[in-house]
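Milestone 3.1: sequence recovery, worked example.
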């Protein structure tokens, strides 16, 4: 046996060269980069969350909303909403709006939105029309699950009532 030679158990041993290490290293990082590219593309194309462009503007809106909530609470209105399933697969929403004495509110316009808690692309507006004084109704195709019901009542173009409640549709 020559000096420096080793027995390898009957097979030819492959020599580990710098080139082999370099190719393996580049291959490993290429696979990691490809996996990251796929994951980034999936994350960006499916993002349906919310963004705030300006926290300052959001703060100003919050202050206005807080003042409107205080004036709304002072009215002691009772606004109730109920859902029912229609035969064509749509969901019907009926909203009853009464003042503090229980009388139907008149001269209002109502708007409703079902806001998906995780994906704003799934949000649905429900067109409401007044069926009698203080009662508004509308229907929309909405998937079952948890939603945020946003109700707004306006008079002469100004919002006088707003509520946001978690609801579960079946």
């Amino acid at each position: 046996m020559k000096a420096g030679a080793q027995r390898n158990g009957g097979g030819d041993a492959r020599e580990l060269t710098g080139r082999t290490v370099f190719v393996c290293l580049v291959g490993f990082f290429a696979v990691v980069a490809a996996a990251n590219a796929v994951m980034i593309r999936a994350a960006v194309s499916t993002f349906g969350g919310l963004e705030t462009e300006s926290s300052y503007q959001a703060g100003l809106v919050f202050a206005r909303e807080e003042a409107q909530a205080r004036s709304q609470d002072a009215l002691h209105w009772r606004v109730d909403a109920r859902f029912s399933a229609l035969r064509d697969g749509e969901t019907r929403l009926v909203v009853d709006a009464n003042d503090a004495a229980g009388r139907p509110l008149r001269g209002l316009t109502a708007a409703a939105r079902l806001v998906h808690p995780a994906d704003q692309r799934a949000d649905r507006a429900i067109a409401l029309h007044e069926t009698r004084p203080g009662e508004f109704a509308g229907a929309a195709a909405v998937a079952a699950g948890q939603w945020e019901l946003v109700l707004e009542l306006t008079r002469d173009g100004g919002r006088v009532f707003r509520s946001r409640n978690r609801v579960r549709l079946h």
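DSSP finds two helices and eight strands in the chain. Helices lie at 18-46, 55-75.
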